[in-house]
């Protein structure tokens, strides 16, 4: 390609090369160009600290967009836990809980529940393998599930393990939510 074609392509943005700049008032002789040292390195990009200390309008709007669903989800989790703790969700007389289950979301939101090993291991292969009753009798367990996409769905899945009639419990529930519950349950 001829030098002029390259210059035109750079000006029009087809070739992005910061070391090549075109200025009609400046010309470079071929001898000078071959002996010139490489251009100095570009300055490092600004650190993330400055972007976090001075958020842009877009950042603030994005955060606001995420804040409302987060508040609703936290309120829903609080409601589920209140019903669960008061015994409205299950009528079993299992005695005191022997498992402290903590569910942690990717955003750091953390929920801790006091649950029963018997229920978890009967309803979930995952918990059955984690808390084998033959291995440790009379020992209370602490289980943490980290990096969850949706803490509400995980908490609700655990609560549903206490329900005897899932069909009646899930009638009228949003299909997307049922699919999310099934995904976590599998």
If you had to describe this structure to a student in words, what would you say it looks like?
By secondary structure, the chain is mainly alpha-helical. It has a domain at 65-185: Potassium Channel Kv1.1, Chain A, CATH 3.30.710. The protein is 49% helix and 11% strand. A three-stranded mixed sheet has the order 2-1-3. The chain starts with a helix and ends with a helix. Residues 19-72 are annotated as: Disordered. Residues 97-170 form the BTB domain. Pathway: Protein modification; protein ubiquitination.
Helix content: 40-55%
Identify the CATH architecture of the domain at 65-185.
Answer: 2-Layer Sandwich
Q: Going across the biggest sheet, name each strand in turn.
A: 2-1-3
What average pLDDT do the residues reach?
74
Overall 3D shape: elongated
Q: What top-tier CATH class of the domain at 65-185 fits best? A: Alpha Beta
Radius of gyration: 30 Å
- The amount of beta strand, in percent, is 5-15%
- Low-pLDDT runs: 29-34
Instruction: Briefly note the structural class of the backbone.
Output: mainly alpha
Gap from first CA to last CA: 59 Å
> Tally the helices: what do you get?
9
Biased composition (Low complexity): 19-30
Protein name: BTB/POZ domain-containing protein
InterPro entries: At3g05675-like, BTB/POZ_dom, SKP1/BTB/POZ_sf
Domain BTB: 97-170
